[in-house]
Amino acid sequence: MIIDASVAVSWLIETPFSTNSRKLQPPARRGPALLLVETANVLLKYHRFAKISLEEIEAALRQLRVVVPDLTEDRALLPMAFGIAARSSHKIYDCLYLALALERGEPLATADKRLAALAQKLNIDTQLIGPEP
């Protein structure tokens, strides 16, 4: 299963999506290498809003490689991601996740409704994670 940053973050720290995302138990968890940077950026935003400490971020980043151990180099995905982005007017960094899902023939897990909608248009099986009610 291809995991995007929204799901990875919800596995690492408590978010409104954590309860539902933790119900996912895919045997294989993959993502583009960009996942590391995107996840770190989201964790930094949580820190800036005083929701988590720097120590918690450091621990989460160490855990990230365990949570999503299989990362694909972005440059290998870039041609396909560029094509998807150009045709859909979607952000190219999100399209890296879609390119990987198409290349691997695997479903995508995300909490991003817009990304999930585009994935479904591309016939990618999608697990849209919603917040806990």
Automatic annotation (TrEMBL):
It comes from the Bacteria. InterPro entries: PIN-like_dom_sf, PIN_dom, PIN_Pae0151-like, TypeII_TA_RNase_PINc/VapC, VapC_family. Keywords: Hydrolase, Magnesium, Metal-binding, Nuclease, Toxin, Toxin-antitoxin system. It is an enzyme of class 3 (hydrolase). GO terms for molecular function: hydrolase activity; magnesium ion binding; RNA nuclease activity; toxin activity. Its EC number is 3.1.-.-. Mg(2+) binds at D4, D94. The keyword Ribonucleoprotein does not apply. Its cofactor is Mg(2+). SUPFAM superfamilies: PIN domain-like. The keyword Protein transport does not apply. Residues 1-119 form the PIN domain. Toxic component of a toxin-antitoxin (TA) system. An RNase. Belongs to the PINc/VapC protein family. This is Ribonuclease VapC. It comes from Mesorhizobium sp. WSM2240.
